[in-house]
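Readers outside the structure-tokenisation community will struggle with the description of the input data as it stands. For illustration, here is how one protein appears when written out as sequence plus structure tokens:
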Amino acid sequence: MPSLATVIENLARAQSELLRAADAVPADQWKTKPAEGRWRKAPVPPEPQVVREKEEMLAELRGVRGRTLAFIEETRGRELIKYRMPHPFLGSLNAYQWLQFIAAHE
């Protein structure tokens, strides 16, 4: 299992890469659906009403990431491996695995 420092680095890198990719998408094309076969299919495709304006969604992402980092800081020094929650495909993940999962999927 990666160290907490590695998880934090992975979260920062993932967000940086995502924001760099998002910056390349013009705001007027943010809600444009990609051509058929251009993106991997999600198990549950997002509903069109869930996709909001670019800056609104990126601001929300930054806020959520801030809360994630605040949680990590507040629980630093506590053993979180005993806290688990099920994932529909991967089984039961502990808190550290969930944090790593967030980084891997951003």
User: Anything to note?
Assistant: The helical segments are 4-23, 54-74, 95-105. The chain has one domain: 4-27+52-105. The first strand starts at residue 84 and ends at 87.
